[in-house]
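hiii so um. not sure if this is the right channel but i have a protein structure encoded as tokens and i wanna go backwards to a sequence. like what aa goes where. can anyone help
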């Protein structure tokens, strides 16, 4: 049996995180399938009962996809409870080019991406690096407080 994978991120406002993570990953909002005007219309056509669809669910894209078809689908699942603890799983956005690239160039690339994401709504939590390390990363929080790294 084949296995496919999607990443699911619980959140309060899918629309906000769709926009942020499209910027962060270079992904696109996933259009509803089969010429449906919305995901809600699609789910209703599949027979999903209205009582299983919260108000507003599926009216705007709640998932994003890699336009190259290589990365996983990411679904932003609306949940009623707020985030209260640190993530046990996080994303690393690798932009530096790796250790074959001079550290000064890696730092510049990481800082540039972190600055773009801060402008898009992220918050810098801390920087990982130092004079004795050949590694540099910035730890950020997305607009709903989910931790991720730019490395």
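sure thing!! here u go:
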């Amino acid at each position: 049996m084949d296995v496919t994978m999607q990443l699911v991120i619980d959140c309060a406002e899918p629309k906000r995180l769709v926009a942020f993570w499209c910027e962060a990953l270079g992904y696109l909002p996933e259009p509803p399938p089969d010429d449906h005007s919305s995901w809600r219309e699609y789910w209703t056509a599949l027979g999903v009962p209205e009582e299983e669809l919260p108000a507003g669910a599926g009216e705007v894209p709640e998932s994003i996809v890699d336009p190259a078809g290589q990365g996983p689908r990411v679904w932003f699942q609306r949940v009623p409870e707020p985030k209260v603890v640190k993530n046990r799983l996080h994303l690393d956005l690798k932009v530096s080019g790796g250790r074959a690239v001079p550290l000064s160039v890696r730092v510049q690339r990481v800082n540039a991406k972190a600055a773009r994401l801060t402008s898009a709504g992220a918050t810098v939590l801390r920087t990982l690096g130092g004079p004795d390390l050949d590694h540099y990363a910035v730890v950020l929080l997305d607009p709903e407080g989910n931790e991720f790294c730019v490395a």
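oh and Residues 103-119 form the longest helix (17 residues).
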